[in-house]
Amino acid sequence: MDTSTSTPPNSWELFLQGFHAIVGDVSGFLYTYWLVFALILCGLYLTIRTRFIQLRFLKDAFMVLKERSHEKHISPFGALMISTASRVGIGNIVGVAVAIVGGGVGALFWMWITAIVGGASAFVESTLAQVYKRSDGEHRYKGGPAYYIESALKSRTLGIVFAISLILCFTYGFNGLQTYTLTSAFEIFVGSENFANGHFTIFVGLILAILVSFFFFGGGKGSATISSVLVPVMAFGYLVVALIVVGMNIDKIPGIFSHVLEEAFNFQAIFSGFAGSAIVLGIKRGLFSNEAGMGSAPNAAAAAHTSHPAKQGMVQTLSVFIDTLIICSASAFMVLCSDLANIGDLKGMALMQSVMQDYFGGFGLYFVSIAIVLFAFTSLIGNYFYAEANFKFITHNKIALQIFRASAVAMVFIGAQLSMELAWDLADVFMGFMASINIIAILLLSNVAIKVLKDYEKQRKAGKNPTFKAADVGIHDTEFWK
After folding, report:
1. Cα 180 to Cα 190: distance, rounded to the nearest angstrom
2. Fewer CB near the terminus (10 Å): N or C of the chain?
């Protein structure tokens, strides 16, 4: 082949290639040598310490959802919807496809494991967020890892480090990925050539940057309504479509389960390329989707009004199960029930669009494309406000806040120009740093969560509706529960 007329890469392209190589190496190191084992071992340790809290108290978690709060407070059910809205999105649809294509069908099993053992991590981090929450005006609360690190570990410095890691993760990692995925949903409609020349991605990036700027600079009014109403409705609709597909292919389900388990424990294949194996890809995508132990959901959990911190901890385990065991599994079954031989080299968004189009024709293509656009856009808004809450933990300087908001808008534009590999790797790296800090914090503070859990169990056995007083269990550094 004559390559004499090929255009050499320009300086910007060379920079991106070098940057991507560095990001990919860091991501590979984080997940190959540290985070995969840390997540599983942390989840197993907390599962044993809490005596399988994520399974023992499922009934109690559903009972808590029935509790009513003052009309100006966020109820346990409201907090569940907010955190589920944050979790449910492109990770449940595109992330599952990325894991299966990259790591094989066995990746689905490791996504399940991440959710099951991660349920205990979700309980501990959300319970801690409730214990150490603070007032944020009349009938409102704030909290999260930065706050329980500062209050319980007595280290504002480490709290600031966590807040910075969350800001990097959600503003510059996740929002870059959300924008890329939203933009890529249009490729099938405009054609690969028009998409590749960069003009269309620039156009979409500018439109998105303008739209999100109204939310980022507008104080957030209405964003909670968009996330907590639109996302659950779309998630329910997506689940209904997935169940129809599973019903159409019910005879394939036993074989799929068998294949998933077989490939999940194909250790020869796994350890011959561990960084791209079913274990690593399954845990990466599982963590991105359900966020268990990562330190993001506690920011929503802290906002709930409840009579006992353990109640909100239990509710958050439900959110993890809904996200991964139900919605992610639905996506996986749709892919695995399809004719993979006809998919060829498709991956990511294009794969899910092809699968849905094969099942439902034009309706399937438009449905999944619209779902991704809505999920990604609401996630852009929700991710930003997680980040802004942590920015305000660091400083309330108004000039600094405006600069941060401008940089967040700029990242939305930049995200539309990224490649799929760079977008995912960048999100994985920032997610890895953030999760690492939170894992260490919840392990150090696990005794506090265990005390709270034992207090809850003691009151339940006595036939009471548990209420919490921090001093009764030897906790004296809280603001709300004195």
Report:
1. 15
2. N
